[in-house]
Write the structure tokens for this entry.
Amino acid sequence: AQKITQTQPGMFVQEKEAVTLDCTYDTSDQSYGLFWYKQPSSGEMIFLIYQGSYDEQNATEGRYSLNFQKARKSANLVISASQLGDSAMYFCAMRGPGTYKYIFGTGTRLKVLA
Amino acid sequence: SAVISQKPSRDICQRGTSLTIQCQVDSQVTMMFWYRQQPGQSLTLIATANQGSEATYESGFVIDKFPISRPNLTFSTLTVSNMSPEDSSIYLCSVATGSYEQYFGPGTRLTVT
């Protein structure tokens, strides 16, 4: 069975500093996708970044990068140069082969301090 | 990407009543999904809304409680029936456009008193 684990319920970071949000996963599939979403207090889910299991390079999208370590089954999100607007809940999710269905982690609440 | 709207954005309902949530997408999509997010929790998939056929429900969710319609490729509804306070959640619809990611609507915040 697939599982996503986010062990940091809450994180603080100083404005303009970088922060890493942890995500580990468990699957027996060889092909899978890993995603990060941001959920502000307003409730919408905002897609941030995607990493495929066969992608050799770590995904990057602007200030977001995904530190993908396949052997360790980890897919940590790195946010560089944190901004106050980055304060939100962050969810890691996984999709297995041949399906669009997601499994979500429990989330990490990030607070950026001025 | 896709632009998704949901109605209502929030509602307060009495126990025993039903609420129908609408999800509208700005383009035709094959896959639409409904999620529930209970207070302080992660997202749980309720069902996949299939166009022209019955929805596919996940374990723990049944059609009598959460009937879903999908009359076309841009629209779906989720009804929360015979509500109890435990149904107080954010309900989100999402779509998969053929690329890897899903796009979510803004959510419907439901409070059952």
Remarks:
- Residues 7 and 22 of chain B are 5 Å apart (CA to CA).
